[in-house]
Protein: Twin-arginine translocation pathway signal
Organism: Actinomadura decatromicini
Amino acid sequence: MSAAKVIGARLRRLREEPRDEHGRAHRSREKWALMLRSAADPAADGLPGIKSLAKMIAQWERGDHVPGPIYRPLYAKVTGKAEAELFGEAMRSSAPVARHDALPLASAAGAASRRRSAPVAPELADYFAEQLAGHYRADRHLGPFRLIPTAAAQYELLCDLAAGAQAPLRRRLWSLAAGFAAFLGWLYQDGGDLDRSAHWHDLMLERAHRSHDPQLVAFALHNKAMLLADLGDGRGVLDLTGAVLAYSPGLIPKVRVLALQQSAHGVSLAAGDDDTGEAADECARLLDDAAALVERVDDVYPWGGACRTTHYLDVQRATYLTRLGRADEALTIWERIMPALVESGARRDVGVFKARQAQAYASRREPEQAVTVAGEVVAVAEETGSARMRRELRTLGERMRPWASERPGRRLAEMLAGMGGHA
């Protein structure tokens, strides 16, 4: 029996026993989900809603996969047992999933380089490249936590292989390891575990430097800047994007587009609602510069392709205009592009964009419309567990304060309360 099956059976027993006189489980999965959420730090952000978490519990108990590092401490608190007692089989068979500090990963790669003597097949690089591309495709249809165990295990295997390979294959494998670290950083970021996201972004930077590829290093800085934007650190965003753009002449168009648009977010975050017009003008200039480069994006790199998607820069414009309180301009864009965004099928991204659209409606003093749009977002946030949506809904709640005692404000409060208070 696999480690996941053994652990799943154990977790199910802990939830169900002791059964009542009718043989019914002691606690339902919904009750167990509530207990896990209650065990979390009150300041924690991004845990799924009760229904979504109950579905995840069912998957864990079936042995589909093992609870990730976010949930293991919660199980330990609820059951009063040590993590090693609950998840020991997984820790022994797939330790990289549970480890989230850089030193063990780095030392593991170093140990691998000392013990590996067999040559590394170049075909493995193509295999991992295909795996990473497949993960990004799967991510469009799954919640943020489902792919973490697999991707983390593959990341460590890549580090193992890269440490024993010779150039130029060695550099390509480190490049792929950076790509996996970026993907894991993104999953944790979307799931709301920003500490672990920061850890994986830092690993990406280190692995990118090992690849000796300045384009990848610049992309890693952009990714870290994107995380800082989620943290509201506009000046930090500009520190990192400024470092990228300082080397602009040697960078491919894709990297420059990504850095320019992220700079616009940094400017708008630093200005906030206090903008007198200068920030909006600077954001517009940065995105105009990016728009002039988009048609020139034509490279072989598998990452950063979002900048070539329809309405990519329109989304960035609408976002900074919403952030700066320019609701009329923002809504003109949101209403024009939203139908096409919905058709794209990227539900988590669209949920974030709709929440921002709702913020713009609130800023334009259309609370009923804001709440109508928010209702669509709440449903998707519950299903996917996306913390990005929850953060945007929290911002909407702040903009809806003038109507807190009126019908729209009460409706929104009820929606957010239905998400377990974590919106």
